[in-house]
């Protein structure tokens, strides 16, 4: 059995970037990172553009100009201005090549077809030049840039409809247990509704990992080994819940060993989630989480989250950890470090009742975990504690 810090270090060390690429429509590329530099296919803006509503001028030495027309956004015609002539123009409209300044409308007096500007202005004022943001063929975004809404808007403005991005991992979720039935089915004596798959699927979706398949397997050694073999060969990440302890009907550990999965650790000195397995085979990472829902979700946030971020080659791989003031008392049983379900708000944290590894009701209202180290036996109101902020 290893410590929490040792387990985290092993996940960080053994989880490697996928370095696989795929093409995504720009509008569906949010959260991905660019696999290669993107060069601009156009000048942006693609024409000299008015920065405001006003009047485009062909400058001369007089404050009066003859108004000869109008240009609004989207117009494709090209008016020719002589010195001393002007056109009404609007924000984003193309500035005629023969105009060399735009005067804002608030500084113009209009009298029929003659306008008078308040003062002389410098050449090219209030005109966005051709290619001001980026010129055709220039670098628009660097490789490894994370595609935020702003980046997607920028790429779309350049007319780019698809991008080459780092592929996100394909993920298999496996639930084990003869006692599990799906929601909506009759709940016979001795059965419970299966919840881990929906819980973990939701956690993955919230992190924008959508390439996920769900598999269910009975407590049978041959079936467990067969299912694990197929999903390990077909996915980048495998997450198993249940069947990893040492009971007579826990077959996951035996099956992983038979499949020659390299074990990096099994059992972590922590509560909840002691019977946690992490291993790899070829380029696939495998986590076997405890079957108890709260323990499974805790292990997901503390360990699997890190593996996912490493696979995506992200710089920050762990959830944020901050210090906060406890508004609760808590006494720990035993000497294992503990992850406590909690509610964080405005630099204060409340440790909730119901810390059992099977308790989902408490986790349902939590937005944080309080980490209680091995050497701490109790938390008192007013103590400074370490808080892991959950991505919910």
UniProtKB/TrEMBL annotation:
Organism in which the protein naturally occurs: Mariniflexile litorale
Family from the record: Belongs to the MoeA family.
Keywords for the protein's UniProt record, in alphabetical order: Magnesium, Metal-binding, Molybdenum, Molybdenum cofactor biosynthesis, Transferase
One Pfam family here: MoeA_C
Name the record gives this protein: Molybdopterin molybdenumtransferase
Residues annotated as domain MoaB/Mog: 172-310
GO molecular-function terms, A-Z: metal ion binding; molybdopterin molybdotransferase activity
EC number: 2.10.1.1
Keyword check for Transmembrane: no
Pathway named in the protein's UniProt entry: Cofactor biosynthesis; molybdopterin biosynthesis
Gene3D superfamilies listed in its UniProt record: MoaB/Mog-like domain (3.40.980.10), MoeA, C-terminal, domain IV (2.40.340.10), Molybdopterin biosynthesis moea protein, domain 2 (3.90.105.10), Molybdopterin biosynthesis moea protein, domain 3 (2.170.190.11)
Domain of life: Bacteria
Biological process annotations from GO: Mo-molybdopterin cofactor biosynthetic process
GO cellular component: cytosol
Lineage: Bacteria, Pseudomonadati, Bacteroidota, Flavobacteriia, Flavobacteriales
Cofactor(s) needed by this chain: Mg(2+)
Keyword Magnesium set for record: yes
Substrates-to-products reaction catalysed: adenylyl-molybdopterin + molybdate = Mo-molybdopterin + AMP + H(+)
Function according to Swiss-Prot or TrEMBL: Catalyzes the insertion of molybdate into adenylated molybdopterin with the concomitant release of AMP.
């Amino acid at each position: 059995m290893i410590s929490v810090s040792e387990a985290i270090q092993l996940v960080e060390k053994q989880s490697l970037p996928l370095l696989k690429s795929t093409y995504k429509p720009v509008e569906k590329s949010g959260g991905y990172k660019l696999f290669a530099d993107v060069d601009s296919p156009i000048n942006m803006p693609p024409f000299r553009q008015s920065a405001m509503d006003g009047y485009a001028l062909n400058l001369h030495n007089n404050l009066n100009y003859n108004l000869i027309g109008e240009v609004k956004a989207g117009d494709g015609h090209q008016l020719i201005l002589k010195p001393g002539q002007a056109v009404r123009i609007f924000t984003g409209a193309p500035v005629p090549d023969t105009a060399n300044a735009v005067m804002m409308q608030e500084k113009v007096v209009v009298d029929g077809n003659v306008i008078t500007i308040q003062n002389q202005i410098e050449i090219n004022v209030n005109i966005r030049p051709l290619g001001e943001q980026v010129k055709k063929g220039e670098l628009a975004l660097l490789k490894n840039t994370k595609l935020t809404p702003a980046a997607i808007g920028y790429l779309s403005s350049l007319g780019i409809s698809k991008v080459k991005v780092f592929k996100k991992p394909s993920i298999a979720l496996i639930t084990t247990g003869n006692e599990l039935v799906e929601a909506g089915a009759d709940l016979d004596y001795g059965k419970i509704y299966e919840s881990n798959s929906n819980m973990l699927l939701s956690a993955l979706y919230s992190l924008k990992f959508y390439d996920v398949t769900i598999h269910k397997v009975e407590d049978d050694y041959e079936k467990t080994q067969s299912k694990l073999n197929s999903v390990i060969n077909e996915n980048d990440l495998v997450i198993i819940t249940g069947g990893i302890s040492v009971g007579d009907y826990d077959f996951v550990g035996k099956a992983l060993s038979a499949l020659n999965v390299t074990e990096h650790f099994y059992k972590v000195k922590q509560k909840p989630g002691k019977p946690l397995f992490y291993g790899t085979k070829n380029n696939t990472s495998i986590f076997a989480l405890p079957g108890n829902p709260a323990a499974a979700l805790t292990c997901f946030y503390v360990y699997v989250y890190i593996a996912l971020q490493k696979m995506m080659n992200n710089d920050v791989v762990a959830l944020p950890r901050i210090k906060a003031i406890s508004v609760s008392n808590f006494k720990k049983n035993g000497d294992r470090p503990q992850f406590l379900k909690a509610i964080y708000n405005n630099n204060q944290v409340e440790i909730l009742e119901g810390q059992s590894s099977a308790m989902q009701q408490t986790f349902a209202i939590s937005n944080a975990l309080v980490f209680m180290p091995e050497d701490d036996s109790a938390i008192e109101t007013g103590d400074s504690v370490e808080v892991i902020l959950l991505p919910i």
